């Protein structure tokens, strides 16, 4: 079934208010979760609302938590998120990065002690919509084995990069695991196999069977050793620059997914040394080269990062946002 | 066979001088190529010297090219590399990033119109050795198909991140293709298969056969769609921020591998908001969690990025640097 943007947003806002969020915070969270589902990232839109509600009930998220400035040095600021809602903390910090970048050319905000920011791409879409380059990442609790080991010791630490473009921003939003656990679940429920091997089964064999990977927790990092290494350094950078928790420390705190995590928000003026025309030409030449390469599937050219989102957004704006009836009823029952 | 550091360096320096580099540039390039082989990145150490020599002969590298300041805004500087040697240009710019970071907390240098920087990790090892976080990347000519297409349209755009640590820096040095073409060649010459599929053969099947991938050029991006997307945004950022060429534009110039490419060098003070003790604890907790996870191969714990390099460095410092006799004779004949 599909529901309209306004209907979904109203329902989520009601739940957010019931969870104890202020009118202002509930509005921001409802808008963001709904945009996330509308853009096709269903795992972190409506679907995630019941878990967020539980986290507020348990005190793992503090509905009243606000970002608090704890350090400042030129274009760089450090905030403590006070375990407030991940979305409102991250929205505040990405906006601060934008303000710093508008003043200094670059702005860097390091946020510690925050909670799950839901879709990471939200913040780099926001920054790109302000005409700036956005770079943001978070660490998480352990959910992926480091390459060479069999037990989770790394977060999947999503990295998001957005570049403003009149015809549609270029926005990359990638976690460090090849597939998300959400994707494993969806594939299993559909009775399907993964398109490419996604991890190990309990015999230690590489497999495309999502259930076998869910059972072992031995999910592949993106590019095996490479995503593993990138996850390590993103974790270290987020924790060091924010003076916050690294994944190993988050694991010990035990406040759920991303409880007490560390995040970085960077905004950069793309026109420091190049004119709008020069930047547009770089974007056009790159996208045109990608589009014109002979496609794997005839008639379906390769896409730039964010292109698929724009297409899903257009469809869901027109036809309504797809929801699982079970999830929709669950949210309505909260 | 193995040769000593000093013997290799002297031989490379002789070739660099013959290629037309100044005494100072030849010294820097010889030192860097030798360190690269010593650290186990054989493809971009001694092995790359004959190609560099040819590029100088053809005028694709200008032995006298120097970085020229063309833009400045606070902690950010823009240089034109004037097609000078990639190593001396990149060494200069990473050092400038260090100086800017020592003054402002962060330094960003965007370099355009440069040539192959050889091992990317060189510059983030350098920055980390100065006690700063280093982030650097380059774009390249097309050598990898965008995910969803069959023809190369993307560079493999190496990304390097270094974090200073007393017991050994954490340094990630990763290209956006899962395997380098150097790795395909080495595996083919050894008559072996790749440990994990690395691309497509001419029938369009996923394969572990290096020769089949060399034939099609259809090498996998790291993590399929993910490394493809990251390659796109790294290319765009490097070209936009330096007002230089993107991959699609490098392709049209035709001055060999990485001729007229764009690079970014960032240095950040890790102690902006955290003390040395706090940063060390983050590093220790992270590395200890990785080391203590149950290993895939008994007795061989997972490693942090850079750990393998330190181990190879120690071996090669003691036993001499392994070289292919054919390559060594070729360099000596130049």
In short:
Two copies of one chain form a homodimer. Chain A is an alpha+beta fold.
Description:
The structure is a homodimer of 334-residue chains. In chain A, helix 6 (181-189) packs across helix 7. Chain A has helices at residues 5-18, 23-38, 49-58, 86-104, 121-129, 181-189, 210-216, 225-242, 247-253, 276-292, 307-319, 325-333; strands at residues 2-3, 68-73, 76-80, 106-114, 133-138, 144-145, 152-154, 159-163, 170-174, 199-200, 206-207, 261-268, 321-322. The longest helix of chain A is centred in the N-terminal third of the chain and has 19 residues, at 86-104. In chain A, the strands form four sheets. Chain A has a seven-stranded mixed β-sheet, with helices on both faces. A two-stranded antiparallel sheet of chain A has the order 1-13. A two-stranded antiparallel sheet of chain A has the order 6-7. Chain A starts with a strand and ends with a helix. The first copy, chain A, is built from twelve helices and 13 strands. By secondary structure, chain A is α+β, with helices and mostly antiparallel strands. Chain A has three domains: 2-61 and 321-333, Hypothetical Oxidoreductase Yiak, Chain: A, domain 1, CATH 1.10.1530; 64-177 and 221-309, Ribosomal Protein S8, Chain: A, domain 1 (2-Layer Sandwich); 183-217, Hypothetical oxidoreductase yiak, domain 3 (Wheat Germ Agglutinin (Isolectin 2), domain 1, 2-Layer Sandwich), CATH 3.30.60. In chain A, a hairpin with a 6-residue loop joins strand 6 (144-145) and strand 7. The interface between A and B is large, with 84 and 84 residues.
